[in-house]
C-alpha cells in the first residue's frame, strides 16, 4: 500500500521529523480517533482504580503507557509486520468513569466499549485496575458470544467478594463466568504464583473451567511450548487477552499495586504473545500499571511493548481478512 493511497491508514508522527519527546502523548504517537474518523483498532484508556485491594494508582496507568510508548517504532520485526500500516490504529482517548461509584463506572465502561466495538473497531484498552475487564468482556461477548480468555496475571482474579463487594480487581473473572460471557472450554491463567487465601481458591477456579500455567511452568517449559499449548486450547475461537502487568516479576514491573515475587520476565511475556499471532484476537487489555511505584518507566515500557505486540496481532488479522475479501 503506497503512502499516497487516500485510504492508507494514517500512522504515527514521524520521529525523524518531530522529536519523539515533543507534543502530547497518544499511544505510539498515533493519530487521535477524532482526527481519522474511524479505526480498525481503537486504543482507549480507562483511568479507574477504585477496585483495588492494596496500593492505588492504576488510574494513571494509561497515560504512563502512552508516555512510554513514544519510543515504539513502526515496524515489528518479531512479527514481521508494520501494525500501523496494515490497519488504522488510533488513540480513542479515555473513558471517563466515576471514581466514587463502582457500579456506575462499570456501566459507563461497558457502554463506551459498546460504542467503540459498534463501529467495527477492536479495542486495545489501557487500564486502570483489573475491575475493568468485566465490563469490557460483557461488551465483547455481546458482539461475539462467549469468548475464549487468556489471562496473564500473578493472581487468579476469580475470588468471590472483598468486603462484600462483587466488583473489585480480584473478582472480574468469577463474575464473567457466572454471567456466561466466557467460553469455559478455553480459559487459561498464565503467570500465576504467590500465596492464596486457601486451597479452595484453586478448586473453585478449576471448577469454573480455568487451566493454569504458572510462572514457574513458563520458566521450566519455555515460552514457545507454552504458546503452542495455549494456541491448541484456543483454536479459532474469538479470543480476549487480559494482561495484568503484575504477571511480570517486580524486577520487570515494579509499578503495580499488588506485586508478587517470582514472576515472568518481560521477554517471556512478549515471546508467548508472539507465539499467539495466529489466534483470532478480538480485543485486549493491559491493566494494573501504577506509575507512582515505577522506576525509570520500567513497568510502563514493558506495558507499552505488550500493547504493541497485541496491536500487531490484531492489525495483521484485520489485514489478512481484508486481503481474503479482495
Ligand atoms: N488483580 C490484581 N492485580 N490483584 C488482585 C489481588 C487481590 C488481593 O488483594 O487478594
Ligand atoms: Zn494481578
Ligand atoms: Zn489482575
Provide a descriptive summary of the structure in words.
It is a single chain. By secondary structure, the protein is α/β, with parallel strands linked by helices. It has one domain: Ureohydrolase domain (Arginase, Chain A, 3-Layer(aba) Sandwich), CATH 3.40.800.10. Helices cover 36% and strands 16% of the residues. It is built from eleven helices and eight strands. It has an eight-stranded parallel sheet, sandwiched between helices. Helix 7 links the parallel strand 5 and strand 6. Helix 5 runs parallel beside helix 6 and helix 9 crosses helix 10. The longest helix has 28 residues. The model has no long low-confidence stretch (mean pLDDT 97). The protein binds 4-carbamimidamidobutanoic acid and zinc ion (2 copies). One zinc ion binds next to loops. It holds the Pfam family Arginase. It is an enzyme of class 3 (hydrolase). Its cofactor is Mn(2+). Belongs to the arginase family. Agmatinase subfamily. GO terms for molecular function: agmatinase activity; metal ion binding.
